[in-house]
Amino acid sequence: MVDPVSTEPILELRSVNKSFGVVHVLHDIDFRVYPGQVTALVGDNGAGKSTLVKAIAGIHPIDTGTYLFEGQPVTVHGPNDVAALGVEVVYQDLALCDNLDIVENMFLGRELTHRGVLDEARMETMARDALKSLSVRTVTSVRQTVSSLSGGQRQTVAIAKSVLWNSKVVLLDEPTAALGVAQTQQVIDLVRRLADQGVGVVLISHNLGDVFEVADRICALYLGRVAADVKTADVTHSQVVELITAGRSGSLGLAPAEAAESM
What we know:
By secondary structure, the chain is α/β, with parallel strands linked by helices. The protein has 2 domains: 1-86 and 168-263, P-loop containing nucleotide triphosphate hydrolases (Rossmann fold, 3-Layer(aba) Sandwich), CATH 3.40.50; 94-166, no CATH class. The chain is 31% helix and 25% strand. It contains 8 helices and 12 strands. It has a 6-stranded mixed beta sheet, sandwiched between helices. The protein is globular and about 60 Å long.
């Protein structure tokens, strides 16, 4: 695991605010993602996790604050700008097409051509290489249709798709939701391998077991504010539950997050 003291964040938000009309959802958010580390983003429903992820992804423009990538302020007008930086998001619904095979899904909207026709051989090779780079052994053929894959295999394909384009930061939204025990472990192992390749990984999860197994850092949100951003090794399960449910943990000596406006 990379110590954040010895490196700079690859992606950073400083004092970010976001409102929808009169509803102030994100309050002065400071959030950092480090290369080679898994940062878990946790919080109860309504804490602001989805809004924060969509702000990072360029779906929701931030109202005030600074978005930095590799130490430099950047202006984000939409998802294409974020993708150009090297940031990919794997949403909970995975955005895969059941009627297409793995190769077709991994290159959907980014198909490679040669002399005006699809370069099927090159895309198939790149898809295999992406899966191989993550030590994926659960997929037997890249020409399987997605409809024939298990939930864990689908999640694997979605993650491999995100790294196909040399991504530097990958955000994973509840990647183990609705998966069985064995499939969950496969995905958690894959998340760790992704970080070990130097990618900055953000894991959005309600499953604290997964968080404590794979995350290097934990950022807890409470009513649109950062309740704590700590090393996983420095907190206990019960302390994180306190941060999620009360915005504070007395045993950590952290002040309570100020109550946000009604959401």
